[in-house]
Design goal:
Elements (H helix, E strand, L loop, with lengths): L4 H8 L3 H9 L8 H14 L5 H8 L4 E5 L10 H17 L2 E5 L7 H4 L5 E2 L8 E4 L1 H14 L4 E6 L5 H16 L3 E6 L3 H8 L10 E4 L2 H13 L9 E3 L7 E3 L2 E2 L2 E3 L2 H16 L7 E4 L2 E3 L5
Parallel strand pairs: 1-2, 3-4, 4-12, 5-6, 5-7, 7-8
Antiparallel strand pairs: 9-10, 11-13
């Protein structure tokens, strides 16, 4: 049998409004300690459970944060998603929120469902965003290549128009140009064939390094080079970006930029909590990255 809030109030000897204030946990209401204890004792005695929907409507919030990936399914084996979800879960625990995964809105705009939004990884204009310092990552890679004597490199770009990938490419090209490095750009979906073909040219005419916008792309190119007798790093230095899964083969580790995706997601939850509470939040927050040297150059 369902117990009502009025029954709790009757047992505690207070109004149902007082019970609601105590169970709502709003600090602006000052309820005497003895009264609060009588109400909590009555709740325990009767086994009363507050109605979640009613409380949410009254507060104007549910304390549920949703993660919308923009895909029809979550690639849980994908380590990027795993790190992101781990960070979201950690942030929600610290902020005392619940986490809900949302796959597809099926035609409904995200803004129509959520009162406050925040973007992670790919910044969105007009929306608070948390991502990594793309300029810092580009500078670290370009500086490493320059110090190693590389003067002609290939940059493998994303085949999709993701803002983070575009920013990453632009930042690297700008820094490489400043350091006097020639950059040829190939698109991800055709890069392997193009790199194998260009590596057949004489050593003086071909690039000495390939920089990839993403570690998975670098792994694919590494495998294709191995199949075609192209030695990495003897013939071609190979550098990725992400740092989530660097091992290419036993004893072979990819040189890459390590991006703190877990920390990005965790920080996004904290900033979102501040925004929901009405605090001012920065339009964009960028977390630092670091260069991880491996066996590929």
């Amino acid at each position: 049998m369902t117990v009502s809030i009025r029954e709790v109030a009757k047992i505690a000897g207070v109004t149902h409004g007082t019970v609601s204030k105590v169970l709502g946990g709003n600090p602006k209401y000052s309820i005497p300690a003895p009264t609060r204890q009588r109400i909590l004792s009555a709740v325990g005695e009767l086994g009363y459970r507050p109605h979640f929907s009613a409380q949410s409507l009254k507060r104007g919030r549910t304390n549920i944060y949703g993660f919308y990936a923009g895909t029809r399914h979550f690639e849980i084996p994908n380590m990027f998603f795993a790190h992101t979800l781990d960070g979201l879960h950690a942030g929600c625990n610290e902020c005392e929120k619940d986490l809900m995964l949302v796959g597809t809105f099926r035609g409904t705009d995200a803004g129509a469902l959520y009162g406050a939004l925040i973007a992670i990884v790919d910044p969105v204009h007009g929306m608070p965003s948390v991502t990594i310092d793309e300029d810092m990552g580009a500078s670290l890679i370009a500086s490493h290549l320059a110090e190693c004597g590389h003067r002609h490199v290939v940059y493998v770009t994303s085949y999709g128009p993701m803002s983070s990938a575009l920013e990453r490419h632009a930042a690297f090209s700008k820094e490489a140009d400043r350091l006097g490095i020639i950059v040829d750009s190939f698109q991800d979906d055709h890069a392997c064939e193009q790199i194998v073909a260009i590596m057949r040219q004489s050593p003086g005419a071909r690039p000495s390094a390939a920089v990839c916008w993403h570690d998975n792309t670098a792994r694919t190119i590494y495998a294709r080079c191995h199949e075609n007798g192209i030695d990495v790093p003897g013939d071609l230095t190979l550098i990725g970006f992400d740092g989530i899964s660097r091992e290419l083969a036993p004893g072979e580790m990819l040189s890459t930029i390590s991006a703190p995706w877990r920390a990005v997601a965790r920080e996004a939850v904290h900033i979102l909590a501040r925004r929901v509470d009405g605090d001012h939040v920065p339009p964009i927050t960028r977390l630092s990255v670091e260069f991880m040297s491996g066996t590929t150059g």
